[in-house]
Every structure is written in structure tokens, then in C-alpha cells.
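ASSEMBLY PREDICTION REQUEST
Request ID: AP-0331
Submitted by: J.K., bench scientist
Number of chains: two
Total residues: 709
Priority: normal
Notes: Please return the full assembly, not individual chains.
Input sequences:
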Amino acid sequence: MTTATLDPDISARRSALGRRILPYAMLSPAVLVTLAIVFFPMVQTAWMSLHEYVLFRPNDFNWVGLDNFRAALADEVFWISLKHTAIWMCTTIPAQLLLGLITALLLNQDFWWRPLARALIIIPWALPSVVIALMWTWIYDSNYGVANEFLLRLGVIQQAVPWLANPDTALASIILTLTWQGFPFFAVMILAGLQSIPASYYEAASIDGASAWRQFWHITLPGIAGVMMTAVLLRMIWVANSFDVIFVMTGGGPGYSTHTLPLYAFIKARTNLDFGYGSSIAVLFTIMLMVVVVFYLRRTGKAVD
Amino acid sequence: MKSSSIVGIASALALMTSAAYADSTVRFWYHFDNADNPMDELVATFEAENPGIKIDAENVPWNSYYDQLYTSIVGGNAPDAAMVKLFAQPRLIELGALHPIDDDIANWDGAANIEDGLIDLVKGGDGTQYYLPVQYVALYLYYRADMLAELGLEVPTTCDEFRDVAKALTRDTDGDGQTDVYGFGFRGAKGGHDHWGTFVLGAQDVSLTDGITSEAGVAGTQFVADLFQKDQVFPPSAPNDGFQEIIGAFKAGRTAMTIHHIGSANGMVEALGDKVSAAPVPACGGGSWTAFGDESTAVLSNAEDPEAAFKWISFLSSEGHNTTFNQATGQLPVVKADASNWTMHPERFVEATQASVPAAQLLPSSSATSDFVNTVWPTNMQRVLIGEISAEEMNANIDALFSE
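STATUS: Completed
Returned structure:
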């Protein structure tokens, strides 16, 4: 009744204003939550990294400027961990991608138990990291592990190998574990991409006499490039930050053989309670990861375009 | 009539209010690995005896026990009382997290029933009493009596004998070219400083805070490295082996000796029967050193009702209840009467513990001890075992930690 007496211009302006505000109103709860649980701790971490802050001396919160960063850059363990992080990312993600791609191509074929295969393939991804880490620790066990038993019976090795206690094999063993855990993610994403490619493209290519390889190269790969780019980006960030599997399997050892930067930051902060130094490692790693992500987005963005 | 009703209501309200004030809840943190947990029984008994106090006992996983305790203290959400080890005491004092209990112990009848000297042993570095002992152990050497008998060997009493025996026990028993039994199950992961200490800290004038970089100190670490690298008497997985691995390997017959305490004795007997026995650790470098495994309880400074919290922790260290508590942990009671009636372990393991007590020592009362236990020792030991650093470098790193 009131609105009926309003000037139509005012009513239209209100309606337009409501439309403009509505998206913000809808987004604000998510933004507020993100600010509270992501942005605020990030700022707090950056602030702590500029202080000497050892948790069991809570009253000594002293400003040290960039001293923690200087100490980190002069720390042998920081560079060892950075090298391992680079190896960790550069091998795990391509291995997961390749395995995921092969799996997706297989699952895209017609066979009677395809629904069951799709369900089974997701299991490694669905299992909690701690369960996976414990399971693979037993697989690698040098006394009772099935990996050694299998390889001994095949005659591939002559002595049981302490996979996780040997510095030459420990990191590779964990990379294999994480590859197994993460490939279903790629498989599922790529499979979704494959199913969005119209069958008519392949029919046309067949009529033109294109081989299976050329069809894959010129139709399939461009068709899933966008999905793969997003999946690699997401996985890059997750794998880089993932340390739970390493922590459970080796704790970073033997020595520093499986230390990665997120794990080192965690050990410094959570075990040694040196939150200032641990935060500086986390901040340095975040900056490095951002550089890698921006570089990746620029390169792949151009390629996809 | 009217006024009497008002008085009645007021009295009832006053009673209700006082009852509400009398009700205290003590939040207690502990860590029991044993699934057969008697804590509910202890809580029920205590609450029946002390109607005004409610116990909220939480079993916190051991692996992250101290991480969670320190964080909860700084975060202002610490429990009122907790199970604590001596190595953590300097840090907890530095945090201002402990409530002094000198007066409570002085007024507690049960104090006289605690084993002699134990209460003083757990006193804080500042001379104040914060801890109340609840159980103790001394680490000793587990050995396979049947394997020693089979090879005509004696239980080693010195490091030299230990090396010879460990080498003899390391065998390929089925002739397939693989080593089936290793002489000693060494714990190279966190917690293995107790093993290393036996070979290093027994030497004269060598301790974690003094003389660790001396010739004798370095020789001790080198002895451990040689046992692994040259003599190969440890399983190849030793650098990463923790508690589960060393105990599992010993029970499965993969190792013939290891070092642990009476807490694992019943499990060992269940797996191996009379084939397993125990003796004090060998003397190395002219003296003996073994770890005194302590566990106490403490009232935390943020406790809302410290009196109620002390009542609860003293209950755990009192006659009868201390036995129930130790049945879960498999360690030894601190109450004299409970210790004299102790039948939970076969006699030979109790005797080995008692024989080990004279050599049992505590880690330094320093805030560096936590870092030594959690990161510095395991990382350096593993690096020595895999040949990344020398024994000299490891001991220098430990010296640097305690000199800070």
C-alpha cells in the first residue's frame, strides 16, 4: 500500500540498489569467514615472523625486523628443505598428472564394470592422509613390508631395503605414496573434461583419416587443457603445502632427508615452539609459491589461449 | 508466616548457591597407550569419596601430548592438572604454568607413604615443589635368554662385551643369505636418546651439559655409529625406528636385545614367555648410565580450584589407587605399600629395574632438554647413522644446544 504511493522512479532506484547490494550481501558471510580463518592468521603469521617469539617465553615478544628471514636464508636446513620441496613438487605433480591422464582415458572407454572402476579409483583420494601414511609405512617396512617381500621373491633385490630409513630412497618412497594418493583427483577432473568433448569431433577426424595419436594430440589434449591447467594449479598448491604424509611416515628423517619447507616450518613452530622463526619460513615459502603460481598461470594462460 | 516463608526460600537459595560454589570441575590430561583404561574407575571412586568435585579426565595422544599442553597453556585453555615428565618442568616453570604444591604436600598424610627421596627428586630447579610422582621406571636391557644360551654367551656387562655378544647374535638362521636376527634393536627416532645415553653418558666426566665433546664423549657416539655401520648389529631400519618398531622387532625375534623398561615386560612375556629376560644395561666408558623414566602429576597455575586439583592428583598417588593407575601404564607404583604388594610383572623384570636404579639418571633440568629430546638428538643421531655428519659434529651440536 505504501509502495503504491511511491514515485515509480524511487521504486526503480530502490530495486536497482537492491540488485547491486544483493551480491555483496550474499557473498559477505563467506568473505567474513575467509577473512577470519585465512586472512587474519596470514597477517598474524607475517607479524610473528618479524618478532622473536618462543612460545614458552610468551612475555618476550620482541621486534627483530628481518632477522628471522636473514637467519633462515643462512640456515643449511632451509636450503636442504627447499631443494626437497622442489624435487617433491616437480616429480609428484607430473607423476600424478600422467597417471591420472592414463586412468581417465581408460575410464572413458566403454566396458561393463566401468561404474565400479570409477568408484574404486577414488579410494586413495578419499582415504585420510594419516591412514595412507601408516599403510605405506608398513608396506615399506624392512622387516615385514610387502614391498620387500615382493621384490625379494622377484629377485629384483637381494637384501631387504629400509626404504624409509635410507636417505637415498626415503624421499622417493614418500613421493610414490603421494602419487598414489593424488592421482585419482586428476583422473576424475580429466574424465569430466573428456566427457565434455563432442563425439562429432572424433567422427570428423576419423573420416579425415586422422590416426588415434593425432586425434589425441589435436582433439583430446586441447579439449582437456583448461581442466588440466586448473587441476595442476590446485594440486601444485596442495602438494606444496602437504606435509602430513611425510610427518607420519618419517617425521622428516632420517636426518633431514625428507624435510620440506612446510614440514620444517611446522617442526620449528610446533615442536621447538619457535613461532617467530617458524613463521618466517612459512612466509618465505608462501612468497616463493606465489611466484611459481603466477609464473605458471601466465605461461599456461597463454598456451591455453 | 510470610516472613518465615521468605526466610525458608532465602535459606534454600543460600544452600543452593553454596552447593554450586562447592562444586568444582577438575580438567585432567593424561596419556595412556593402553586401551584397557582404568581412568573411569579411578574417577568414579574419587567422585564418590569427594562429592563436591567432578573430574573431567581426557586421554591425550602421547605423540602430540606436549605440543598440545604448551599450546593450551599459551592459548589460555590449559587443564587444571596434568600428567607431566621431568624434562618438561623447566619449560613449564618458564611459562609460569605450574602451581606450587609445597604446602599441599606438607599437609598431606599420604606424602610419608611415597617411596623415599622421590618427592625431592622431582623438585623444580628453583627449589619449589610443583610435581607429585605417580610412577617410575629405570630402563634396562631386554635380552633373549634362549639365544644367548644357544650360543653359549653371557649377558653383557660392559660395552666391549656388548659389542661381541651383539655381533654373535646377528645371524642368518635359515641360510638364505639374509640376516634374520640382529643383535640389538636401536631406537634411532625420537626417544632413542635413552639408548645412546647408555653408550655415551656412562663415561667418566661426560654428561649432556659437560664433557660431551671430550674424547670419551665422542668415542661413545662413534661406538654407536660403528655398531650400525661396521658391525651391522642394528636392523637397517634403525635410523627411523621408534618405540613400536623396536618392541615389535624384539617380540618377533628380529632382534635379540634392546633397551626399554618394565612397562613393556608383560607384552614381551606374552610374546616370548621364558625366552625373554632382563638385566641392567652394560657399563660403558667405566661407568653405567640408564634413564630414569619418571612420570608425575602437577596442578597448573590456571586451575580454578587448585585445592580440588591437588586432591585429585594426590588421590592418584595414594595407596591402592596408585596400583590401579599403574596397571594401565605397566610402570612401577610410587607408594611404598603398593610397591611391596606389586605382582603385576614377573619378578625378574622387577629385580632388573631395582638393580638399574643406582645407575638411573635424569636429563638436565634445562629448557633446552625438550629440544634435545624432540629434535636435536634424533636428527643428529640419524645423520651420524647415515654417515652425513661425524660423531664429533653430533656431540658439538648437543653441546651448543645446552650452552645456549
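REVIEWER COMMENTS: Chain B has two domains: 2-138+292-360, 140-291+364-403.
SIGN-OFF: pending second reviewer
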